[in-house]
Design goal:
Layout lengths: L17 E5 L3 H11 L3 E5 L3 E6 L2 E6 L17 E5 L4 H10 L6 E8 L2 E9 L5 E7 L2
Parallel strand pairs: 1-4, 5-8
Antiparallel strand pairs: 2-3, 3-4, 6-7, 7-8
């Protein structure tokens, strides 16, 4: 056996811990994620806010934050999907109350025999958020 021939092992990834968004206005992002999407704040700083999103965390940071980050953090460049607990009809009404524009939707899709309906919105920094409800 050669030195570089080792027993192959697979990396066992368990879950996502957090998603990080670069935002230009932390106060606006906080109002949006805390008030509109009703996420709990678990950390509050001058250049970073952390929200609880299900079992995961959503981190909003400004470009000025000096923590370790991506090579080229860009405001409004992230797309992610969240699962709805309420009906999409209720969510549409809620978003309208906050004057949040629905970019697209409702859109129906199927993945592995599961049908979902989605709405698409932008946060104040321009990040795209899919709000998804799986049909029962």
């Amino acid at each position: 056996m050669y030195l570089f021939e080792k027993e192959l092992r697979y990396l066992r990834v368990q879950d996502i811990d957090y998603i990080e968004l670069t935002v230009d206005d932390l106060e606006q992002a906080t109002r949006f994620y805390h008030e509109v999407l009703d996420l709990s704040i678990i950390y509050e700083g001058n250049t970073k806010m952390i929200f609880q999103l299900g079992k995961q965390k959503l981190v909003c940071r400004t470009p000025e934050n000096e923590d370790l980050t991506a090579d080229h953090p860009t405001v409004g460049s992230t797309t992610f999907s969240i699962l709805a607990k309420d009906s999409l009809h209720t969510i549409q009404q809620h978003l309208a109350n906050y004057f949040i524009e629905i970019i697209k939707g409702p859109v129906k899709s199927t993945l592995k025999n599961k049908t979902a309906v989605s709405l698409y919105i932008n946060d104040p920094a321009g990040n795209l958020i899919e709000i998804r409800e799986y049909e029962k």
